[in-house]
Each structure stands twice: as structure tokens, then as C-alpha cells.
Specification:
Elements (H helix, E strand, L loop, with lengths): L1 E5 L5 E4 L5 H13 L1 E7 L5 H12 L3 E4 L6 E6 L11 E2 L4 H11 L6 E4 L10 H9 L3 E4 L8 E4 L8 E3 L5 H11 L5 E5 L7 H8 L4 E4 L6 E5 L21 E4 L4 H13 L4 E8 L6 H9 L2 E10 L2 E9 L7 E2 L1 H5 L5 H9 L4 E4 L12 H11 L3 E5 L2 E5 L13 E4 L4 H12 L5 E4 L11 H8 L2 E5 L2
Parallel strand pairs: 2-15, 3-14, 6-7, 10-11, 18-19, 22-23
Antiparallel strand pairs: 1-23, 1-24, 3-5, 4-5, 7-9, 8-9, 11-13, 12-13, 15-17, 16-17, 19-21, 20-21
Length: 461
């Protein structure tokens, strides 16, 4: 699939983007291994979360889906109620699902195998293999290169450990906390910088013995094994009000919203509202970075939904300036760097991004993909081992900083959506190739983009 975006009218109106993928994965996992019934509202319908749902169905969990309201009812089997799946668990393109499921499966009394598509099977997993092995897990890369497929054998027992993450990673932290639910003693994870805390919030929602200490900023978190996760008891099923069930609502995804926040900021005359977006402070770096660049962003109707902070975000066109973005900010905006790169290209002056080496082992080498895409659209960019320097528009460069062109997304959904947004601020049409994987995180992206006013056409390669 390819997308072609032609510059045109400004973005207007109120839209709702896709449900939060990170929270959706965790909601399915925790509901499945909790005792009782959980009703999940606004669950992501992307292919990544679908893979997690199908994985737990294969392990004996009953998951019922309603109609168009993206509502799912999960009858959890408890920590020790999963059954051996009939074959390897294929998680498609989802690194989050693979890492988190590894934490659950290494505690099961039967062997298992985690695999994925070509892209996922090329991604390094040593960062979870090493600490899980320290806990007593029997987990290994089938090929021996540290990449999936991962083969997991039953372990006699897991033991809690005190582990310091070499680099901030919410996925590694979450895998260890999930394994820690099954381990003897306490498992604690210390990160060198703040990481997403969706897992900790979800653990608390299901009554798990989770604790945080250290300097009080949530940089050290842990669980104690031997407890259980509790959802609802299922009483009152069918009346639609959730009586007897734990009801969780998934907010709209800030990572998905980022593309439209950038679009509204860089396309002249734009003004939009994004409804019901999760604004968890451990991943809202995109907001603070854009504000430092001069973006006009306003949070309205701030509230808490199922333990997560949510707001409606108002964004309007603004003149941006280049800034330096360091490792601490990158850790809170790692998935939004491709979108931020588009904003940087539209800013006055240069923007330097550092501490983002992790982007080289995502669905693609995102630093290389962003650099190549910006270059193809006429932007001067320097690529560093851990980041980029992007030279924004100069005085008097006309309507937009981008010329038209053809972009290879390298099958990466975030690269594809970032350069689709760039097309709205270009002087000519921008065609983005190899876009089918947009559906892994943001099904309905093109419809949402059109509703906001972005001129998107879909074609076959």
C-alpha cells in the first residue's frame, strides 16, 4: 500500500485518534491472568493488539468482543490458569507483545515459543533474555543471535532479583515485573531515567502488591511474588453497567495523536482538537518538546480515566524554533521522534536529537529512515550514531520546507505516518511507499486524516 498526500487546506475540527496501543496490550495481558471478569472499553483494534488477544485465546482465555464500540470482555484464568498453546505464538510485528509475554511464559509449567514476522525476528531481545535468565528462567534465542524466535522451557522456580536497567525501557521493566508476580520474594527494577508507568498503574488496578521507592519519582519499582491479580466476579453480566466486573477504558493514544499535533502546528491556518488523549506524564515528552519549540498546545477537560490521566488537546498552527533534545526528553518521547523530526524540519534554525540510539532497532532503523526521508524532501540533515541534526527552514523559503517526493517507509508504521503529515506541509505531492503496517498501530489513520482535512489518497504498490 502507498499513500499520496497533496498540500491543501488547513486542518480543522475535532477528531479522536486510535486507542492507546501500549495500554491495550497491558490490559489484555493483565485481564487474562487475573481471576475474574474484566470489561475493556475502547481497546485498540490494531494488528499488534490483535496478536496479543489471539495469543491468550490460544492459551485458553475466553475473550468475547462486542460490536463497534471496541469493547472486549475477558474471563481471566488467574496467574496459574493458562494452558499450553497448540504451537508457536506468532506476535506479528509487535515487540511490546513479545517482550511482555516472555515475562509471563517463562513462569509456566510447559514449553513455549514466541515468534513474529521478518521485522520482529530481526530485533534484539538480549535485554530481556539476560535478566529473565538471572531470575531462573530458561529462555533462549532459537538462532543464538539474541533475536526471536525465543524458546522457553519450564523453570523449576523463579526468584526475585534487584535489577538495574542499562538503558531506560518500559518493555523490559514490564517483562520483569510480570515474571516477578510468579517469583519467590521481591523483584525490583531500577531505571536510569523515567519510563512509561502503564504497567505499574495496571498492576495497582488489579490489586497486585506493587511498590515504588528510590527518590520518589518512580525510577525504582517492584512487585512481590505469591499474590494474585483480581478483576470482577462476573455477577450481573449482560446488563451493560459492568456490575461485578472490573471496567477499564483505554484512552486515545498520544503516540497516534502526535502526528496530528505536528500537522496542526506546521500546516498554516490549522486548528484542531484531539479528544480523550492519554497524557501520562511518563510519556508526554512530545508535549513539552513541542511547547519548547513554540507550538500552541492547550490541555482541556483534564481528567482521570481508569487510573490514567486524560485530556482533550487543542493544537493550532505556530512558528517553531529549533532546539536541542537530549536523552532525558527522548526517553519520554521515543515513539514520537519521527513526528518530531517533521516539526524540526519546519522550525527556524537547527534541531539536534541525542540519546536516541534505541531507534535503530525498532521496526526499522528509524534514525536512518527519517534521515533518508527528510533528505528526499529537500531537508538538510546530519545523522549521528544516537540521533540527528535537522536544519529547519530558512527565512523566505516559501509555503513549506518540504518539496514533493517519494518516501520509502521501510515497512515502519511511524515512518509512514510521519511523512504523510509532511506531505500536508509540502510544496508538492508526497508519496509514501510500503505503508500496510500502519494498521498495526493506527487502523483508520487515513479516514481520520481526511476527517481532519489532510488530502490523503491510498493506492497499491
Amino acid at each position: 500500500m502507498r499513500l499520496t498526500v497533496t498540500p491543501g487546506a488547513p486542518l480543522r475540527g475535532a477528531i479522536r485518534v486510535a486507542a492507546d496501543k501500549s495500554i491495550s496490550h497491558r490490559a489484555v495481558i493483565f485481564a487474562s491472568i487475573a481471576a475474574g471478569v474484566t470489561r475493556l472499553r475502547n481497546l485498540s483494534r490494531g494488528a499488534d493488539v490483535r496478536a496479543t488477544v489471539e495469543a491468550f485465546r490460544a492459551m485458553g482465555v475466553r475473550i468475547d468482543e462486542a460490536g463497534g464500540d471496541a469493547e472486549v470482555k475477558i474471563r481471566g484464568v488467574g496467574l496459574h490458569g493458562l494452558r499450553q498453546p497448540p504451537g508457536a505464538i506468532d506476535l506479528g510485528n509487535s515487540g511490546t507483545a513479545l517482550r511482555l509475554l516472555a515475562g509471563v511464559l517463562c513462569a509456566q509449567p510447559w514449553p513455549s515459543k514466541l515468534t513474529g514476522d521478518e521485522s520482529l525476528n530481526a530485533r534484539p531481545m538480549a535485554r530481556i533474555i539476560a535478566p529473565l535468565t538471572q531470575m531462573g528462567a530458561r529462555i533462549a534465542s532459537e538462532s543464538g543471535d539474541g533475536c526471536p524466535p525465543l524458546v522457553i522451557a519450564p523453570a523449576p522456580r523463579l526468584r526475585g532479583i534487584d535489577y538495574a536497567l542499562p538503558v531506560p525501557s518500559a518493555q523490559v521493566k514490564s517483562a520483569l515485573l510480570l515474571a516477578g508476580l510468579y517469583a519467590d520474594g521481591a523483584t525490583t527494577v531500577t531505571a536510569p531515567a523515567a519510563t512509561r508507568d502503564h504497567t505499574e498503574r495496571m498492576l495497582a488496578a488489579f490489586g497486585a502488591p506493587v511498590f515504588a521507592d528510590g527518590d520518589g519519582d518512580g525510577d525504582r519499582v517492584g512487585v512481590r511474588g505469591g499474590g494474585e491479580l483480581r478483576a470482577g466476579d462476573g455477577a450481573g453480566d449482560g446488563d451493560g453497567d459492568g456490575d461485578g466486573e472490573l471496567v477499564l477504558e483505554v484512552p486515545a493514544d498520544l503516540s497516534a495523536a502526535a502526528f496530528f499535533l505536528v500537522a496542526a502546528t506546521v500546516i498554516d491556518g490549522s486548528e484542531i482538537q484531539l479528544r480523550g488523549v492519554g497524557v501520562n506524564p511518563t510519556r508526554s515528552g512530545i508535549l513539552s518538546i513541542l511547547r519548547r519549540m513554540g507550538a500552541g498546545l492547550e490541555l482541556r477537560a483534564e481528567r482521570v480515566v481508569s487510573g490514567e490521566p486524560v485530556a482533550d488537546i487543542h493544537a493550532r498552527a505556530a512558528k517553531l524554533r529549533g532546539i536541542d533534545i537530549g536523552a532525558d526528553e527522548v526517553a519520554l518521547a521515543i515513539d514520537e521522534i519521527p513526528a518530531l523530526a517533521v516539526a524540526a524540519a519546519c522550525a527556524e534554525g537547527s534541531t539536534t536529537i541525542r540519546g536516541a540510539a534505541e531507534l535503530r532497532v525498532k521496526e526499522s532503523d528509524r534514525l536512518s529512515a527519517v534521515a533518508a526521508g527528510l533528505t528526499a524532501l529537500g531537508i538538510a540533515v546530519e545523522e549521528h550514531p544516537d540521533g540527528l541534526t535537522i536544519h529547519g527552514r530558512g527565512e523566505g523559503r516559501g509555503r513549506g520546507p518540504f518539496r514533493g517526493g517519494i518516501i520509502d517507509s521501510r515497512g515502519d508504521h511511524r515512518i509512514a505516518m510521519a511523512f504523510a503529515v509532511a506531505g500536508g506541509a509540502a510544496t508538492g505531492a508526497v508519496t509514501v511507499r510500503d505503508c500496510a503496517n500502519i494498521g498495526t498501530s493506527f487502523p483508520g489513520f487515513c479516514q481520520t486524516a481526511r476527517a481532519a482535512g489532510l488530502a490523503v489518497q491510498v493506492g497499491d504498490e
